[in-house]
Amino acid sequence: MTTTTDVMRAAGRGRHQITTAAQPENADPVVAQAGFEVIGEGEDALWSGSKAEAAQVAEVMTLAFILARGSVVLGTTSPTGEESVRAWMITGHTLTPLTTDEARHVFRETGGRDSTPVAYRTAFAVPASAAA
Prior knowledge:
Blueprint: H1 2-10, E1 14-22, E2 30-39, E3 46-49, H2 51-67, E4 69-77, E5 83-91, E6 94-97, H3 100-109, E7 118-120
Parallel strand pairs: 5-7
Antiparallel strand pairs: 1-2, 1-4, 2-3, 4-5, 5-6
């Protein structure tokens, strides 16, 4: 669960929804979601939420790394109420941060709905991004 936990800790303070999708060839995507909250920042950041949901996200992320095809979308509601979306693509066994426009596209592909107050943001680099 290392990469999953790294994304969750680096997400920053607030309420979050992480969606990960593995995309096997010639099959429907495998998708998992988890809601969580981050308390604190940096190395001291802690997350709370369903460990079972987080484990499912980690399993799907691991599958995406094995297949070298998938995505991760992180929706955030900050403590001030601002909503934002960041996304990463899993290709070549690496988690690659996506730009604002790419995040919008991946968000829509994973079933996200555009709403006016959502800000799309360029994703941050994840420290341990070579294994889920």
